[in-house]
């Protein structure tokens, strides 16, 4: 999962990136996208590791991409290069400044910055959709494709993000390769000062975020940077003193998983215990393809044990003896926590 961190100058975007990834890239440095990968904590993997004692344990991962902004503090525009770098991301996290920054003139205005970013993305998408509709007429494209782009055009003209259109109302298969920005899941991280480190997103801003079919959270990047350097016990105590339930990274991962509707299933054994991330609703055959394309191509069946069932019986042998092992076909919808063994033949 690749999440692009974006934000206007002075928002603290790169500080957030460093906090999340444990890296120390220079603030204000332009150029190419910088990438950092973090492990997604999962108590179920910890438990399975303790049972199987595998040679290798692999957690799900989340990649953060620090997208450099080429716009100055006085300009809200996004350059063509920055727009393309944003299009390459699976999901977006917009960092909004809600703290005083001596290097910038004026008070922070996160609502205005959110609207400015949304407007930039709408205009960029509208340009692409307009061009495609013009070409579609010349190329005599299929009515279904034209209809999809017309639906998108109407939404963008009304300044609605494409992510707000339900799956059943829009065939997104026609959008592959276009990188439409407003169709990307959006997480808004409001970067506040230390005094409000544990405060929720302000109600007015929260309503605006939800109005864009996005999710929001608050964090204080400078405080979180200090937290990241602490040991587990010291970190927990410091968070309690600030009235914060968990670190920004933990809250970010939970929010991102919910926003992207992600789940994890597991493969287990003496060689490796591993978490695989798929979208909720993914069927068994496609989920098998996450492991290897051969498993998807030659899929025969999936042997499935729900995680809770495995813990109740303590071993795969005991699960089989109790008749709780399920054999599922290619159309089985994988559930969060499933332990799967894929049978295939290529």
How are the secondary structure elements laid out?
Elements: E1 2-6, H1 13-21, E2 34-39, H2 43-52, E3 56-58, E4 61-66, H3 80-87, E5 91-98, H4 110-139, H5 143-157, E6 186-192, H6 203-211, E7 215-219, H7 221-227, H8 232-242, H9 248-260, E8 262-267, E9 272-279, H10 284-291, H11 293-297, E10 299-306, H12 307-313, H13 316-321, E11 326-328, E12 338-344
Parallel strand pairs: 1-4, 1-5, 3-9, 5-6, 6-7
Antiparallel strand pairs: 2-4, 8-9, 10-11, 10-12
Shape: globular
Secondary-structure class: alpha/beta
Instruction: Give the uncertain stretches in residue-range form.
Output: 71-75
Helix segment tally = 13
**Percent strand:** 15-25%
The helicity comes to: 25-40%
String of helices and strands: EHEHEEHEHHEHEHHHEEHHEHHEE
Number of E strands? 12
> If strands are numbered along the chain, what order do they take across the biggest sheet?
2-4-1-5-6-7
The average pLDDT value, as a whole number, equals: 91
Largest sheet: 6 strands, mixed
Radius of gyration: 23 Å
- First-last Cα distance: 28 Å
Oligomer: single chain
What does this protein structure show overall?
The protein is built from 13 helices and twelve strands. With 346 residues, the protein is α/β, with parallel strands linked by helices. It has a six-stranded mixed β-sheet with strand order 2-4-1-5-6-7, sandwiched between helices. A three-stranded mixed β-sheet has the order 3-9-8, sandwiched between helices. A three-stranded antiparallel β-sheet has the order 11-10-12. It has helices spanning 13-21, 43-52, 80-87, 110-139, 143-157, 203-211, 221-227, 232-242, 248-260, 284-291, 293-297, 307-313, 316-321, and strands at 2-6, 34-39, 56-58, 61-66, 91-98, 186-192, 215-219, 262-267, 272-279, 299-306, 326-328, 338-344.
């Amino acid at each position: 999962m690749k999440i692009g961190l974006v934000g206007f100058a002075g928002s603290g975007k790169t500080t957030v990136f460093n906090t999340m990834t444990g890296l120390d890239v220079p603030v204000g440095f332009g150029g190419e996208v910088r990438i950092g990968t973090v492990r997604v904590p999962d108590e179920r993997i910890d438990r399975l590791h303790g049972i199987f004692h595998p040679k290798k344990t692999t957690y799900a991962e989340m990649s953060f991409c620090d997208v450099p902004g080429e716009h100055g503090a006085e300009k809200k525009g996004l350059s063509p290069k920055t727009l393309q770098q944003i299009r390459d991301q699976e999901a977006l996290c917009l960092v909004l400044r809600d703290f005083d920054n001596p290097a910038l003139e004026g008070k922070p205005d996160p609502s205005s910055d959110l609207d400015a970013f949304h407007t930039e993305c709408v205009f960029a998408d509208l340009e692409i959709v307009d061009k495609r509709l013009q070409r579609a007429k010349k190329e005599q494209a299929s009515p279904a494709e034209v209809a999809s782009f017309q639906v998108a055009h109407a939404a963008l003209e009304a300044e609605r993000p494409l992510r707000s259109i339900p799956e059943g109302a829009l065939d997104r298969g026609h959008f592959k390769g276009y990188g439409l920005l407003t169709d990307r899941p959006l997480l808004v991280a409001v970067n506040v000062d230390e005094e409000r480190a544990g405060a929720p997103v302000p109600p007015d801003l929260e309503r605006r975020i939800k109005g864009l079919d996005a999710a929001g959270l608050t964090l204080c990047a400078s405080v979180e940077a200090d937290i990241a350097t602490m040991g587990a016990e010291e970190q927990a105590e410091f968070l309690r003193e600030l009235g914060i339930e968990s670190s920004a990274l933990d809250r970010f991962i939970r929010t991102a998983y919910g926003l992207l509707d992600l789940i994890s299933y597991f493969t287990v054994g003496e060689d490796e215990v591993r978490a695989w991330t798929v979208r909720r609703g993914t069927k068994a055959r496609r989920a098998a393809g996450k492991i290897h394309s051969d498993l998807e191509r030659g899929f025969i069946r999936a042997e499935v044990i729900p995680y809770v069932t495995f813990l109740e019986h303590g071993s795969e042998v005991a699960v089989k003896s109790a008749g709780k092992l399920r054999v599922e076909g290619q159309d089985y919808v994988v559930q969060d926590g499933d332990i799967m063994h894929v049978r295939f033949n290529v």
